[in-house]
User: What shape does this take?
Amino acid sequence: MQVNQVLDVKGLACPMPIVRTKKAMNALESGQVLEVQTTDKGALADLTAWSAAAGHTLLEHKDEANILTFYIKKA
Amino acid sequence: MVVIKMTASDVARKVIENKELFILDVRNKDAFHDWKIEGHSFDYLNIPYFDLLDGVDEILPKLPTDKDILVVCAKEGSSLMVAEMVSEAGRDVFYLEGGMKSWSSYLEPIKVGHLTGGGELYQFVRLGKGCLSYMVISEGEAAIIDAVRFTDVFTNFAKEKHVEIKHVFDTHLHADHISGGRHIAEATGATYYLPSKDAEEVVFNYTPLEDGLTVEIGASQLEVGALYSPGHTIGSTSFIVDSRYLLTGDILFIDSIGRPDLAGLADDWVGDLRETLYHRYRELAEDLIVLPAHFMMIDELNEDGTVAKRLGDLFADNHGLNIEREEEFRHTVTDHLPQQPNAYEQIRQVNMGKILPENDEQTEMEIGPNRCAVR
Assistant: This one.
């Protein structure tokens, strides 16, 4: 998977992970992939729902050492 | 316009006093449908905060002008963001300090009644989770039953009342919330009791809670007596306080009965549950006031915020006590059971002392309603 941009929002609490993700996605082109790293556990449900509502595709997410990493493809 | 903080305690007063409130819940839809702040006269609008990042214009017409608006989220951050946006759009608005996390933890102590010799009985209502704990006070001494994990609330309350905590009981090994019982006992030197049949796997010391055990509180020897009443768990034990109150634990609730499946042994325990509800309790005085360890719906609260009802009235009104055929009873309490409480297997492990999660982790485990009943 080719990642076009990495967004590090580790340590930030809700709502910042999604606020920053949205901003970063605005700067990407359709089809490009954003990697989001967060420590906010609520991000799993929220990023999943937000991606679906915005039409983006959540390609994959993983949970390692309390860091959640998401790969989101822009619509 | 201004953004004003509202605490969980403020919201609890609104629930108990039957006040109106408009809740703008900005958590995601699943979280809202699973669990929310319940009030008799509350209205709700659920829009996830991430759908409002571009502005709140579309929801403004849906916000009432004749009642307080409270923005709620999981922890606080998102509700504050949305509240600021609503305020910039010209409306006064409140946000919930600490979010649903603090709502889940908040306890409101309410006096249930007077006991012999000037004693008092308090019910600690955890509105967000539907848990009920109890403190019996008499002449400088206290006993606590089914304490939740916020041990400071109980020890501070005892200090305020100038009483020494002597006995701490758990009616059973809880699966929906983390018990504060043994920690209170450790901190105060009180005796901690747990039914031994529920305690086979626990890794700490406890005093076995057996049928017929009686402790006396204060000089007038106010009686707290144990009555073995299995069914929710095999060790479940009720208490009779001052021959007036029946503390039923998770066996009998106001509008439902305990579920027998949370330790994975529904088929084995359903007969015990039937025996307790249809025989053991039937032998008791109908004028006893039932005080359960949970409520499920806000409708179960009395006007003063307590959860309490005469045993005789429950025999007449509670569906779970009126299933004549044994086969049908078995069906009701073992088939089509509601979803289990969040993280219930881990919570049992914590209550056995096998795992010791951090405070934040404990908060996460306890998110959501208690789900200990079957209707």
Remarks:
- The CA atoms of residues 5 and 33 of chain A lie 7 Å apart.
